[in-house]
């Protein structure tokens, strides 16, 4: 898989000084594998916002566009956000749940 060095949304990222940390999960998406477009589902951040997701275990970060809220389902319990599978692959994530820092 090609490396997109954080993804194509990187150039649209604007730091506002807000951040949070928490457990993340993964959702399947056709995007990102060939185009570097990474997406996230997260509560309390408006859709369309570009967030920076950092994974300290590998020292890597990706930039993802927020699609909307986390779905209310059992799989989302205990999660702060979900990122697309291609984004997780670029971060070097090995588990289905992992701890990240989010900046926006």
Task: Using brief descriptors, characterize the structure shown.
6-stranded mixed β-barrel; mainly beta; globular; 104 residues
Question: Could you give a short description of this structure?
Answer:
The chain is mostly beta strands and 104 residues long. 7% of the residues lie in helices and 38% in strands.
Write the layout of secondary structure elements.
Layout: E1 19-27, E2 38-42, E3 50-55, E4 60-68, E5 81-84, H1 85-91, E6 98-103
Parallel strand pairs: 1-5, 2-4
Antiparallel strand pairs: 1-6, 2-5, 3-4, 3-6
Question: How would you characterize the overall build of this protein?
Answer:
The protein has 104 residues and is mostly beta strands. It has 1 helix and 6 strands; from the N terminus they run βββββαβ. The mean pLDDT is 95.
């Amino acid at each position: 898989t090609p490396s997109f060095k954080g993804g194509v949304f990187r150039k649209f990222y604007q730091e506002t000084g807000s951040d949070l940390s928490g457990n993340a999960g993964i959702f399947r998406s056709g995007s990102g594998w060939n185009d570097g477009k990474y997406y996230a589902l997260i509560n309390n951040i408006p859709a369309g916002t570009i967030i920076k997701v950092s994974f300290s275990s590998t020292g890597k970060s990706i930039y993802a566009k927020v699609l909307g809220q986390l779905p209310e389902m059992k799989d989302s319990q205990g999660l702060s956000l979900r990122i697309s599978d291609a984004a997780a692959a670029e971060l070097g994530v090995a588990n289905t749940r992992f701890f990240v820092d989010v900046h926006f």
